[in-house]
Amino acid sequence: MPVQHKTFADERAFRATLDQHKSQLVVVDFSAAWCGPCQFIKPHFEALADEFTDVAFLELDVDENEDVTEALGVSAMPTFQFWRDGKLVDVVRGADPRGIKQKIAQLQ
C-alpha cells in the first residue's frame, strides 16, 4: 500500500482516518520538508509500505498539520507513531529504518 500524504484540519479528522483503518496497523510518519533526517528516511519508509502491504502508512508534514502534531505531543522529527484500533501502541523517534521495520514486524 503506498504511503498516503495527509493534511488534517484537526485531531478529530486525523482520528477519523485512523477509524477507516481499524482492522490494520497504521504507521504515521511525522516529518518536515526542511528536516534532513526526515528526507533520509523517506525512501526507506516508502519501501516499508511496499513490503508490508497489509499495514497503512501515513506521512504528515508537521508544518501542514500543526494542530494534530501538537495534540499528539510530537516534538521531534522524524517521529513514527504506531496505531491499532484507534489507539497509540508504540513510538519510534529518529531516522532508524531497522528499528521501524522491527516494530512493524512485532506489531502487525
UniProtKB/TrEMBL annotation:
Listed PROSITE patterns:
THIOREDOXIN_1 (PS00194), THIOREDOXIN_2 (PS51352)
Domain Thioredoxin, by residue range, is 1-108
The catalytic residues are 35, 38
**GO MF annotation terms:** protein-disulfide reductase activity
**Gene3D superfamilies attached to this UniProt entry:** Glutaredoxin (3.40.30.10)
Keywords for this entry?
Answer: Disulfide bond, Redox-active center
UniProt site (Deprotonates C-terminal active site Cys): 29
Q: Does the keyword Zinc-finger apply?
A: no
Cysteine pairings via disulfide bonds: 35-38
The question of whether DNA-binding is a record keyword is answered with: no
- InterPro entries noted in UniProt: Thioredoxin (IPR005746), Thioredoxin-like_sf (IPR036249), Thioredoxin_CS (IPR017937), Thioredoxin_domain (IPR013766)
The record places the site described as Contributes to redox potential value at: 36-37
Give the UniProt family note: Belongs to the thioredoxin family.
Name it: Thioredoxin
Species for this entry: Aphanomyces stellatus
Q: Which lineage? A: Eukaryota, Sar, Stramenopiles, Oomycota, Saprolegniomycetes
Q: Which gene encodes it?
A: Aste57867_7701
